[in-house]
Every structure is written in structure tokens, then in C-alpha cells.
Amino acid sequence: MAQVASERIQLNSGEIVCIRSGEESDASGMLAHVRRVLLDGEGMVLLPEEFEMTEEKEIEWIKGIRENPVELLLVVEHEGQIIGNIDFHCGKRKLLSHAGEFGMSLSPGWRGYTRIFRMCSF
């Protein structure tokens, strides 16, 4: 996985968030974050009852990203709680490996701070 140095950012509100590379130990926090986002439903194409990820599967998903040098997982933390993430995945087929897709989510209540990712100096 592409690695980035952790960066602490002070938002206009004074809140401080940390953006860093995701790790397998984030699996539980990532699952809690995704469930919050799914329950909110805004902009989602997946219903909460369709989400079948377990902590073990999440660990493997994160591990897969970390083992791929051209993929990326960043998490946003506030006071130890994951409140957002952004990930990039390349096409799995050789003929599609030049293309990829981004996924991004912010927990409800933090979406007014969409500048979180734009404020990074990565």
C-alpha cells in the first residue's frame, strides 16, 4: 500500500483530526464507521441489512490493500474514533490495472468538513 505520514489537522471549528494510513487494527473502528454511514443512508447505494462485512473480513480487506503497493487506505480519526476514510483500488485484471476507483465516506455530523481531505499536504 502506498504509505503516508500521519498528519494532524486543525479544522476551522478548532477540532483536531488525524489522517493516516489504515491498519489491520482499525478493522473494528472502520466497521463502526461504515455502519454509521449506512444507517444515515445519505448518498448510499447499499442498505444497512446488505452489509455483511465481519471484523475478520475487514482485516483481510485492509491487509489486501496494505500488501498492494498501488492501493491506498486513509482513515480520519477524531479523539480515537474513525470518522472517515478514503480508499483507492486498482483494476484486478491486467488489462484494467491502469484504472481504479476511489471510495470515500465521512460520518454524519462531519460532512460539513469536507475540506478534511483537501487540507492535507500529502
Q: What does it look like?
A:
- This protein has 3 helices and 5 strands, in the order ββααβββα.
- It has 122 residues and is an alpha+beta fold.
- The chain has one domain: 3-Layer(aba) Sandwich (Aminopeptidase), CATH 3.40.630.30.
- Strand 3 and strand 4 (81-90) form a beta hairpin.
- Helix 1 packs across helix 2 (55-67).
- It is globular and about 45 Å long.
- The two termini are 15 Å apart.
- The relative contact order is 0.23.
Offer a concise description of the structure.
By secondary structure, the chain is of the alpha+beta class. The chain has three helices and five strands; from the N terminus they run ββααβββα. The protein has one domain (7-118): Aminopeptidase.
Write the layout of secondary structure elements.
Blueprint: E1 7-10, E2 16-21, H1 27-40, H2 55-67, E3 72-78, E4 81-90, E5 100-106, H3 115-118
Antiparallel strand pairs: 1-2, 2-3, 3-4, 4-5
Helix pairs in contact: 1-2
